[in-house]
Each structure stands twice: as C-alpha cells, then as structure tokens.
Amino acid sequence: MTLLHAKRPGLTDRNTLRAEARRSVSDGAVTVAYGADREAVIAMLQNALATELTCALRYRQHHFVAKSPVSPAIKNEFLEHANEEQQHADQIAERIVQLGGAPDFNPASFAARSDAEYVSGTELRQMLIENLVAERIAVQAYTEMIHAIGESDPTTRRLLESILAKEEEHADELSDLLPRE
C-alpha cells in the first residue's frame, strides 16, 4: 500500500473531509476543525485592531510634532513605528474577515476598545514614555491573547506571535532612546 492510499489514523477520513468542506463553503477558511470560540477570538481581535490603530495615530502625531536636537532620528523612528502599527492593524483586520467578522474601524469606539491610550505630546521625553507605555501594554495584551488562544486557533496565534515580536522590538528601541534621568 502506498502512502497516498494509507489509512489516516487520528484524522478525518477522506470522504467525510470532502463532504464537510462542501457543506460549509460559505465559512471560507473556517472548518469544523477550528477549535476556538470564533466570536470570542473576533472580539479579542477587534480590541487589538483598535489598539493598533490608536498606536499608529499616536506615533504619527508624535512624528510630526517631535522637536529636539536629536528629533530627526526619533521622528523617523516614530514614523517607522506608525507604519508598522498600521501593518499590524491591516493583518488583524484581514484575520477578522477570515474568521467571518467585519473589522470595526469606527474611530468613535477606539477609546472604549483600545488597551492603549491616545496621548498626544509636545515634549520628546513625554512622547517616548507614552509610546513605551503603549508598547508595554501591547506586549502584555498580546501575550495574554496568545495564552488564551493556545492551540485552538494556530493561525491567529502565529499572527499574534509575530506582532508580539515586533511590539517587543519597539519597546526595546524606545527604551534605548529614552534619556536616563
């Protein structure tokens, strides 16, 4: 017997697999093997989306108003982080759609859904601190989401893990830029 015709121990038999795939075509990528509470994951991702959008806007505002002898480099760092936060938001929005939801981009509800705060700034040190605080919040929130999802949704978990790695990098960069008192 060839490997292609071997039994599938522990796996759904081929005919059932095919029938289930046809039965729920409108569910897109979500199959009966999806182990998470889809609505709970979407709600979690909606909050993460609001957080990423809030951070992208805060970083962008800081990019434009930062002024100091070292501000060109920091301004560029703020803009780079703003763009990366927007990429995270786009990735999260795409995952929400894959799970059958509709991403909530309503600015009126950001404050209620975002873990991070939008704090505009005028002083460079204050901007660095506010952005570092937001990154630390994101690191904790993504770590908790990853633990909550566990093995039930590997695709969302991998997405959150990749975003977490970038948020940790942002926190390290901001910490390095923050003048010590």
TrEMBL record:
Q: Where is the Ferritin-like diiron domain?
A: 35-181
What GO biological process terms are annotated to this protein in UniProt?
Answer: intracellular iron ion homeostasis
- Which positions are annotated as binding Fe cation? E52, H88, E135, E167, H170
Q: Mind listing the GO molecular function terms for this protein?
A: ferric iron binding; ferroxidase activity; heme binding
Keyword vocabulary terms for this entry: Iron, Iron storage, Metal-binding
Name the GO cellular-component terms.
cytosol
Instruction: Give the EC number.
Output: 1.16.3.1
Gene3D superfamilies recorded: 1.20.1260.10
| InterPro entries listed in its UniProt record | Dps-like, Ferritin-like, Ferritin-like_diiron, Ferritin-like_SF, Ferritin_DPS_dom
Q: Does the keyword Iron apply?
A: yes
**Which region is the signal sequence?**
none
Question: What's the protein here called?
Answer: Ferritin-like domain-containing protein
